[in-house]
Amino acid sequence: QKEVEQNSGPLSVPEGAIASLNCTYSDRGSQSFFWYRQYSGKSPELIMFIYSNGDKEDGRFTAQLNKASQYVSLLIRDSQPSDSATYLCAVNYRAGAQKLVFGQGTRLTINP
Amino acid sequence: KAGVTQTPRYLIKTRGQQVTLSCSPISGHRSVSWYQQTPGQGLQFLFEYFSETQRNKGNFPGRFSGRQFSNSRSEMNVSTLELGDSALYLCASSLVPRVYDTQYFGPGTRLTVL
Fold this sequence. Notes:
The complex is a heterodimer.
Chain A: E1 4-6, E2 11-14, E3 19-25, E4 32-38, E5 45-50, E6 54-58, E7 61-66, E8 71-76, E9 85-92, E10 100-102, E11 106-111
Parallel strand pairs in A: 2-11
Antiparallel strand pairs in A: 1-3, 3-8, 4-5, 4-9, 6-7, 7-8, 9-10, 9-11
Chain B: E1 5-7, E2 10-13, E3 19-24, E4 31-38, E5 42-50, E6 53-57, E7 64-68, E8 74-78, E9 87-94, E10 104-105, E11 109-113
């Protein structure tokens, strides 16, 4: 059973601080990793994707991947109240497929 | 470019009925995947279609089925509805079913089974 684990939170961070979201996965053959943001009552919205070990930055967001430790994280710098949402980590294990396995999500609250 | 569209957005059905949900992918996208989201189980993969063929299927009973048309639009069907089928059903599209391709989600269909 392929598993993706996230801390369900809630994670509370003051405005302007760095929010750190973590995710671990069980299968070493995992090939692509995605972070989605989901506001209450809405569908998931892609934030970042990462395929290679190391860091990938996009604006205030940085995704970090460590395949040896089977760990992927998302950092949000200068957190804003609008960043308050559930963040979903998703992993695609299978070559030639579009079959994402999702973690349960981390609920993030940014306090003004 | 228009995003993924799903119809209807909301549905209320009773136990034992069947339901058909529709998904139109982003223009040019040929791979469509379906997911079920519930508070207890989170987001779970249902099935994936490409070139009118089901390529992968999740761990759901045979009451859940789907198909894809030549224009890449997809439908999913749930027969003999159960209370536990109440969920948000999400469709996601990507260009082709490569592991590095990004899936973009539609707004979802909220199904309530009474």
